[in-house]
Amino acid sequence: MDAVHYIRSLQLMIELVGTDCAVDHGLKAKVMKSKPDPVRLDTWDVRILSEIQVDGRISKSELAKRVHLSASACSERLRVLQAAGIIEGFYARLSPALVGGIVFVMVEVVLDRHRLEDQRYFEAAVQDFPEVLDCWAIGGRIDYLMRVSSPSMAAYQDFMEGLLQAGLGIDQYYSLVVTKPVKSNSPIPLSALRLRYTPKP
């Protein structure tokens, strides 16, 4: 399949699933970790995604050189990947140490009830708290794991007390204070995908 037919097939898939084509612009590419009915990627796509995860500010001409495509073919593939939602957006990664005055706490949350509507209510409610940087649903002894930022431990405790009073259905929570970052914000490893798909001319 040539590049034109490949791109058109991706566009048809996007139209069928009704994908939102809005794209954010910024400094660093963020690649979506999971999505229902993912678009099938080939080696060229994986190369592009690998490069922009490391350097979202790379120029299109330099990106084309690194992945060994023409500038037009590379730009079109990048556009399709953005339109498909595989690239969720671009952002700047800040240094907490240099910004200063930030405490990070991993919070394990157990709900008092486990009905589907209770889970949906909690998940919708935490979207409104900017202190909650990340929140993951967890299988096992806890229900959710949150990453919370705060200017101090006292402020963190006030925040959690307010969260308990907000009626989110939290039965218990456990605080794990981050003492130092060891590894964070690493690119999603796409090497396995490189081996899975054969390059298409």
3D structure, described in words:
With about 200 residues, this protein is an alpha+beta fold. The protein folds into two domains: about 5-95, Arc Repressor Mutant, subunit A (Orthogonal Bundle), CATH 1.10.10; about 95-175, Alpha-Beta Plaits. Helices cover about 40% and strands about 20% of the residues. The protein has eight helices and six strands, in the order αβαααβαβαββαβα. It has helices at about 5-15, 45-55, 60-65, 70-85, 95-100, 115-125, 155-165, 190-195, and strands at about 30, 85-90, 105-110, 130-135, 145-150, 170-175. The strands form two sheets. Strands 4-5-3-6 form a four-stranded antiparallel beta sheet. A two-stranded antiparallel ribbon has the order 1-2. β4 (about 130-135) and β5 form a beta hairpin. The longest helix has 15 residues, at about 5-15. The radius of gyration is 21 Å and the shape is elongated. The protein starts with a helix and ends in a 5-residue tail after the last helix. Residues about 1-30 have low confidence and may be disordered.
